[in-house]
Amino acid sequence: MEEDLFVDYIIKIRNNKMITAKHYLDSLNKISKVMVEIGYEFDSIYDIDSFSQLLQLKDDLKNNVAFKKLDEKGHRMYSAGLNRYIEFSEGKLLDESDNLLTLLDEPCPVRPKSFRSETESERRDRIIVNQVLQAAHYQCEIDSDHKTFKSKTNHHSYMEAHHLIPLNMQKEVSNSLDVYSNLICLCPTCHMLLHHGMKEDKSKIIENLFDERKYRMQDAGLRFGKHEFNELIEESGVY
Ligand SMILES: [Zn+2]
Ligand SMILES: [Zn+2]
What we know:
Layout: H1 3-13, H2 18-37, H3 51-62, H4 65-73, H5 77-90, H6 120-124, H7 127-135, E1 160-163, E2 183-186, H8 188-196, H9 199-219, H10 226-236
Antiparallel strand pairs: 1-2
Helix pairs in contact: 1-2, 2-5, 3-5
Bound molecules: zinc ion (ZN) (2 copies).
């Protein structure tokens, strides 16, 4: 997750001041250093893509005597920063009103390193997926009446996140495609339709989703006309 997005979350969603965000960033920078010391393979907390790994980090720090001492000496500023970052990663408050997540649409650099989620369960465990599903109130964005079942992980309706422009097209685009504006919350049936359905059954749906998202995508530096978008979709192998 990008550091800038966390700062925007603190300021635009939580309505805190920049100075507060700075305190959190200082805490998270320190935590990143501790992570390296205790043997994490990441350089920074922002490189963690998986939500369960983030919770694991919280546990590891809780059991680390040196960190506990440091945190107590710092009036718990380090654990406070971490807890805020976990709330951000859960998507807390992003469902308070509609379209809040659009406040965080911005161009993000391509980070090949952070996208290693290969299995189905890893893809579901991602921080960005939590945030997108929470902001969409766990409703299918093709039809909010689509019903699923309760997820054992979060006790919400089971939904999946879909990249409107598939990530295999990243080489054609200079800003990251792995961003909020390119992710859609879908029920599993709609999701599988977009991947495995017939072109005539899904091309209109895909175009409609693009029409709904194109301005948000522009804010994220993903500027495409409809023709260009359709070319990317064709080339990605979706049809
Ligand atoms: Zn998908
Ligand atoms: Zn659906």
